[in-house]
Design a protein that fits this description.
mainly alpha
Amino acid sequence: MAEEMTYEQAKTRLEEVILKLEDKDLPLDDMVTLWEEGERLANICQERLTSARARLEAVRPSQTDSE
């Protein structure tokens, strides 16, 4: 399911995870689980951004085309 998330969904969930991780009373096992989820979400965000950048570069005229 996580791979089907949009950038916005993953970013919003990552922000929620970060807020939960800031709780100093969070049990260690919960903290590790949240950290792992956060890593997966951060990777999804990075993949979506990389994909969007590649798509934009593919349709943008290159510098040499305009010269």
